[in-house]
Design brief:
Blueprint (H helix, E strand, L loop, with lengths): L5 H10 L7 H22 L6 H9 L18 H4 L3
């Protein structure tokens, strides 16, 4: 399958929106697509959590004694967290 450019993905996303969509709804849809793309890139690069790590993260607030190893920056999208 050929790799689609960002412009192609955006064009398809916009064309598939309902005709009565608001700007805010369109932006939210694009944000969702960006998050999905980022997650797929993270998974492809092996930047993932184990099932147990994910469960610990969900069951305890960040920075709590039960979850001391995580900070809010640990869960930023990989490409944003590691920018210079």
């Amino acid at each position: 399958m050929p790799v689609r450019t960002t412009k192609e993905v955006l064009r398809d996303a916009i064309e598939n929106l309902p005709t009565d969509v608001t700007v805010e709804e369109a932006i939210e849809r694009l944000r969702l697509l960006a998050k999905i793309e980022c997650g797929l890139e993270q998974a492809d690069s092996g930047d993932t959590l184990t099932h147990e790590e994910a469960r610990r993260h969900q069951s305890h607030p960040k920075g709590s004694r039960a979850n001391p190893g995580y900070s809010p920056g640990d869960f930023l999208p990989y490409h944003r967290k590691n920018r210079p």
